[in-house]
Amino acid sequence: MYPDGNTIEWNKTNNTEGVDGFEIKRKGDTNVKCKIFLNLDKQPPRYKLSEDLASLLGIKEETKTGVILALWQYIKHHNLQDNIEDKRFINNDTRLESLFNCPRMAFPQIPELINMHLQPIDPITIDYTIRVDKEFHQSRYAYDIEVEVDDPNKLRLLSVFNNNASQREVQNLDDKIVQCVQSINNSKTKRDFLLNFAKSPVEFINKWVASQSRDLEVILGESHVNLEEQRRSEFYKQSWVNEAVFHYATAQTQRKMHELLGSSSNIRNDQRR
Question: Could you tell me which Gene3D superfamilies the record lists for this protein (predicted)?
């Protein structure tokens, strides 16, 4: 009745408001079979992956950002990032090389390279018969279409994060956790100290006194440190370094305070004269 290729297309524009439906009319007196194609407007846009890329990543359709993230996880899992010359480059394995036709690629090139493997998602196809033998015809079939919606739990989490009272409670709990961890470390230090003392009291006391004496001499500047030790970074990672820095900073602060007080008193004396 109608020539092949007779297609009626309706496209949604950016200014189109939501509609419940629309009618398409043609003159005719016999039933006509037709196909209805529905292209879902998904935001952000989703794409169908090529067979090779889908086999590599284990996903059939995804957003472009999701594809890049999945590909990056594959790269990290197989240790393909160049850690010798430039970390911006990826040394492709056999599968990636056959996929992108290059043995090596830069990370900024990935969005452009995956474009050749992204296609529009197949439309939803419905076989339908337009009936004209009845004044009003209602199909006996209903079709379910899967659509993506925001996770309701996401809104709940956002409300929790935006709640100042909850944030304060979380901060207080974090502080308590830090205090507990510090207390555990202090208890472990005490345990190790007493355990070593219990194993060999005399030897432990001798080593401990010698260590404390040497640290005190170094802090007060009364010891001539071996120059060979000073050349090694391990020498400055010892426990006495923090205390020495503290004493040095305190001395410098006190010296500055004395200088400021002395200069201010001189200024006052000059003003009195």
Answer: SWIB/MDM2 domain
Residues contacting residue 197 through CB under 8 Å, at least 6 positions apart? 204, 205
- List, for residues 109-142, the tens digit of each pLDDT value: 999 999 999 999 989 888 888 888 777 667 777 8
Q: d(Cα 120, Cα 49) in Å, to the nearest integer?
A: 9
CA atoms within 13 A on the CB side of 3: 2
Q: At the topology level of CATH, where does 25-135 sit?
A: MDM2 (1.10.245)
CA distances to 8, 21, 126 from 26, rounded to whole Å, are: 11, 17, 19
DSSP code per residue over 200-258: -HHHHHHHHHHHHHHHHHHHHT-S---HHHHTSGGGGGSTHHHHHHHHHHHHHHHHHHH
- Identify the three-state secondary structure at position 130: strand
> Residue 127's beta-bridge partner residues?
35
Q: Return d(Cα 265, Cα 50) in angstroms, integer.
A: 82
